[in-house]
Amino acid sequence: MIVNCSLISTAYIGLGSNLASPAGTPAETIEAAIRALGEIGEVTARSSIYETAPVGITKQPSFINAVVALRTADAPEILLEKLLAIERQFGRDRRSSPPKGPRTLDLDLLLMDDLVVNTPSLTLPHPALAERRFVLAPLAEIAPDLRPPILRASMRELLAALPDTGPNRVSDVRVLRRP
Fold it and tell me: Which domain holds residue 106?
């Protein structure tokens, strides 16, 4: 008898877009990307769609952001490869685009169960997770009591701890559409 011993994990993925893609507007791109994620795993939760002010390079269009929970049997590195392949399907090539610059689609692997990973290509939990309202607001919406390893606070607590100044102003992150 063969037994499938695959470990099923829950990964939290941040989505962002501020340029049109082959799927359409940034909001249409996010919706299409969520469908594409459903082809590589099971989307078990999805946040509202948010409009957020850009961080880093501020002279660019506002971003459309969301977060999904994805059940997957993939190891983190394999899942990351699949996320990058989806980005490429939507017209993004990370090698030729400036970090924090405009993009058709950005998929960030934020968390994966209680895994702590630190390799040249992947860090989990995402190193800037606790500093970004545009990630914490949608993440706290779908998993308010989730406590990532290392950070030792829930998504709700991390969001509440952010200052309402600079790139983390509450007014810079607003719900556009509920799921």
Answer: 9-177
Mark whether 106 is an active-site residue. yes
Domain assignment present for residue 3? The answer is: no
The answer to whether 145 is a known catalytic residue is: no
pLDDT tens, residue by residue, 49-93:
999 999 888 899 999 999 999 999 999 999 999 999 999 999 988
Which of these is catalytic: 46, 74, 92, 133? 92
35, 74, 88, 108: the catalytic one is 108
Residue 66 and residue 52: Cα distance in Å, rounded? 10
Residue 174 gets the label, from left (phi > 0), alpha (psi -120 to 50) or beta, of beta
The CATH number that applies at residue 103 is: 3.30.70.560
Q: Considering its fold, how many domains does the chain have in total? A: 1
What are the helix (H) ranges across the chain?
26-38, 76-89, 133-142, 155-161
Whole-prediction pTM value?
Answer: 0.93
